[in-house]
Amino acid sequence: MNKITETLLRIVSEYDGDFKGAFNIREDGLCAGRQSTDNIKIESKKDKPGLEIHIKPGTKGEKVFIPACVTRGNIDDLVYNDFFVGEGADVTIIAGCGVHSDDEEEARHNGIHRFFLEKGAHVLYTEKHVGTGAGTGAKRIDPVTEVNLAEDASLEMDTVQIRGVDSTVRKTTGTLAARAKLVVRERIMTDGYETAQTDFDVTLAGEDSGADLVSRSVARGHSHQIFNSCIRGENRCTGHSECDAILADEGTVSAAPALEASHVDAELIHEAAIGKIAGEQILKLRTLGLTEEEAEERIISGFLK
Amino acid sequence: MNKITETLLRIVSEYDGDFKGAFNIREDGLCAGRQSTDNIKIESKKDKPGLEIHIKPGTKGEKVFIPACVTRGNIDDLVYNDFFVGEGADVTIIAGCGVHSDDEEEARHNGIHRFFLEKGAHVLYTEKHVGTGAGTGAKRIDPVTEVNLAEDASLEMDTVQIRGVDSTVRKTTGTLAARAKLVVRERIMTDGYETAQTDFDVTLAGEDSGADLVSRSVARGHSHQIFNSCIRGENRCTGHSECDAILADEGTVSAAPALEASHVDAELIHEAAIGKIAGEQILKLRTLGLTEEEAEERIISGFLK
């Protein structure tokens, strides 16, 4: 793999010259390294670009790394990855994405991920996105995630867009069977003229299923963010969504988190708050000796942590 | 006026055989009584059905009653009422609506109200909606309200749909100048196969303008309610919307309260909660000697008060 990929891997995944576990490294649309384990098989799809990842029932404590990097302009990488997680497995999937452009051409990664968690499986899914390089070509990352949770399965998604992604549209849909749980923690930072859109659509189909979606965002410069979510309660279930956004400079944010209760025992809640950092918070940190800029940085990094 | 109108007036307005203030009674699309005062002129529109209501600058403490009743099926009443409220006036406008049908034909009232509040004017606007009669014809009330608030003007809207309205679509739009305030308290009860939709769209255009929208609803039987709101912060402003819904029987509710902050000093918040009455609340009242039904009634009436 090339030097840029190596740098991106260190930012978006736990790469330190090596991965401890199963992995597949995608570089500019091609495979730059792959390793399966006894319990986790990674194979190329036959019909289209992408992977089939099979995790054996009962697999515990293993990690799967599937970073994808785009290291130059004029690449529009589209990949379909399917994760089949066997009954009772408990694993961590690390799916960072870095997009780099030093030229005027657009660099884009569009990862379409489908998760099929069997009964009682648990997955911690982490995803870091970053754009780098001094090129004027737009750096775009457009993830599409489809979550299918069988009875008692649970998925925790911990996603973060660090910086430098000019445009992102993030679509996540989920369908939950009885007692399944989906927890999402999303943090997005935009600056300059970047735009970010998040769409969640989660259906709580099974009895006692639950979803908890929390999105935190900071819009700086002239950036614009849009947050849409819809939680559909079709059974006895609990759903919560929260969208908190900090505005700075000329940043703007729209939030539209919908709830649809079509069952009398659905309990759905949402909250959203958009605003600047409170003046007294800045003041407090300035009395401790920080400049206004340092105080703002401190507050923002705490908010996105 | 007929007996049904008289009964409806007692339910939806402060009618006790008479009105204390300016009034216009609309019955089945016609005028059944009108009175202006020195400060409040009520006149028929020249170009379409409806009224022009002019309230002189500085008018204080007066009331205007503009109830509208539909007393039989096969009436589709459409009315345009414009309220011009002079600088510094402080008045109460009472706009109840009752729709009655004893037959199989639909009875509908569609009131399109526009409010133009001059600088510093304050209006308390109350509106009660009810459907009555044993007819199978659908009873519909579809109010459209357009609010224009000049600098320092404020409008408090206190609206309630008591019962018996088969279908309602309630659209309210508002544009607020500097320091103007809009406060909305909406309460809607639906039962049977009734449907109710609320759409708010409020633009906080002026510096330090503010909106506070609170909707409480109870969906019983097989009824369905939809709550949509959008608060647009285009300046330094504060916006809050809240939608709380209680589900009973097979009632269903969707809520989609959007926020759009296009100014860095816009502070926008929303909250929504949909669910059944908590079991422990019922239990508490039952230990005080109430039946389960009585306990539920008590809680719902407190919630909608």
UniProtKB/TrEMBL annotation, chains A, B:
<dbReference type="GO" id="GO:0016226">
    <property type="term" value="P:iron-sulfur cluster assembly"/>
</dbReference>
<dbReference type="Pfam" id="PF01458">
    <property type="entry name" value="SUFBD_core"/>
</dbReference>
<feature type="domain" description="SUF system FeS cluster assembly SufBD core">
    <location>
        <begin position="85"/>
        <end position="303"/>
    </location>
</feature>
<comment type="similarity">
    <text>Belongs to the iron-sulfur cluster assembly SufBD family.</text>
</comment>
<dbReference type="InterPro" id="IPR000825">
    <property type="entry name" value="SUF_FeS_clus_asmbl_SufBD_core"/>
</dbReference>
<protein>
    <submittedName>
        <fullName>SufD family Fe-S cluster assembly protein</fullName>
    </submittedName>
</protein>
<dbReference type="InterPro" id="IPR055346">
    <property type="entry name" value="Fe-S_cluster_assembly_SufBD"/>
</dbReference>
<dbReference type="InterPro" id="IPR037284">
    <property type="entry name" value="SUF_FeS_clus_asmbl_SufBD_sf"/>
</dbReference>
